[in-house]
Amino acid sequence: MKKEEFSLKNDLIGNLPILPQSFWNLVKLYQKKELDCKKLKLLLFEDVCLCIKALSEINSVEDRKHPFGSFDQALESLDLEHFMIKSLSSPLHHLNSEETIWLSQFNQRSLVTGLACRFIGEEKGCPDLEELYLCGLLHDSGMLFLKTSFPEEYSLVLEKKNNGEKLSKIEKETLATNHLEFGEEAIKNWSFPKNLKKAIKSHEDYMEEDLEPSEQVARIVSVAEQISEILFVEAEHQAIDDLFRSWENNLKLPSGFFNRIHSRLMDEIKTRAVQHQNVPEDLTETVLQAHSIMSGLYQTCEEKTREKFRGLTRKNEEERKKAELESLKVILATFSHYINNATTSIMGRSQLIDIAIKRGEIKDESGKVSNSMKIIQQGVETITAVLNGLKKLDSFKTVRYHERSNIIDLRDKIEIKGL
Questions:
Q1: Alpha carbons 28 and 355: distance in angstroms, whole number
Q2: Under a CB-based contact definition with an 8 Å cutoff, are residues 297 and 84 in contact?
Q3: What is the largest CA-CA distance in the chain?
Q4: Is the per-residue pLDDT at 414 higher than 70?
Q5: Which of 26, 181, 280, 390 is the most exposed place for a label (fewest CB within 10 A)?
Q6: pTM value?
Q7: How many helices (H) and strands (E) does the chain have?
Q8: Dihedral sign, Cα of residue 166, residue 171, residue 173, residue 174
Q9: Is residue 256 located within the same domain as residue 337?
C-alpha cells in the first residue's frame, strides 16, 4: 500500500462510526433545553470516536493565542452546532452487527486503558490526570483510522494478530504503515492534548530504560494498555502477578498496586455496563429525531454563516475606507507642503501690493488692482480652508465631477463662500 493512498483517504474523522449508545445519549442530551457541557464531557470521555471528533473541532480553532490548559477550557471553544452535525451524521451500525461488536470491544479496552492511566497518575502524583486519561483513551486511534480506511485489509491484520503476531509488525507488512505512525499522522496538527502524539507514537516502547522524563506518559499508557488486555483474557494468576511486579518496578510503584487497581477497574466496567442497559435495540425513532435536530442545526449554521459573511463584508468595507483615508492623508501632507509654500508667497505679495496702494506708491484710481488682490487673497484662504478641512476628515464620500472622475464632497464638511 503506497503512502499516497493514505493521504487520499486521510479525511477520516468524519467517517469514524460512533457507538449506538453514544448516538442515543447524544440525541437525548441535545433535546434538553440547554446542553449540559458536563454530561457532554462524560459522553466524550466514554466514546473514542466521539472524543476524536470533538478534539478535531477544538484543534481546528484558528487564531488561538494560548494553548488550552484543561479539557473544560477546550470544550468552551467547541462549535457545538458543527460538532453535533458531524457526530449525528456519523456512520451508525446495528447494535448487534460485527462492526458494532468490534467497536464496543475496542472502546471498552481503550476506556480501561484511560482509567488505568488515571489510577497510575494518581499514585505517581501526575499534575494533569485528565490529559493522562485522554492519552490512554485515544492511544490506539490509529487502529480506528486504518480499519475505517481499509476494512477488508484490516480484518486480515486482526486475524493474524489473534494468532499471536505483533500488531504493528503485521500492519507494516500488510499496509506499509502501522497504527502508531498513522495515528500520529492523523493528528499531526493538533496541539491539545499536548502529550497525545507521544502517547500514540511511543507507547509500544515502554520497556526502554533510557526514556526521557517527558516520555513518562507513553510509558504509563503502555503499561495501562497491557492491564486492559489481561482483564479480558484468561491467564494464570502467577503469570499475572509476575507482570504486575515487572510493571511496578518499571514505573517505580509500590508493591501490590496493580492488584488494588484491578478490582477498581472491574467495578468501573460493571458500572458502565449497567448505564448502557437502557439503550433501545431499535434506534429508528432516535435516528428520526437526529435528522430533525440536524435540520434545525443546518438552518442555524446557515444563518450564522450569512451573518459572519455580512460581518466580514462590513469589516472589509471599513478596512478599505480606512486605507483610503490613510492614503488620502499621505497625499494631502505632500500637497500641503508645496501648496502652502506657494499660497504663502502669493498672499504675501498681494498684501504688499495692498500696502503700496494705500501709501500711494501704486496708483489704483479705478480700484481694479485692489479688488483683484482681494479676490486673490480670498482664493488663498479658500485653498487653506480646503487643506485644513481635508486634514480633519475621519470619513468621506465622493460625488461625480464630470463624466470620468469624482471628487471628495466637502460641502457638509467645510463652510466656504462659493464652494
A1: 94
A2: yes
A3: 131
A4: no
A5: 280
A6: 0.70
A7: 18, 2
A8: positive
A9: no
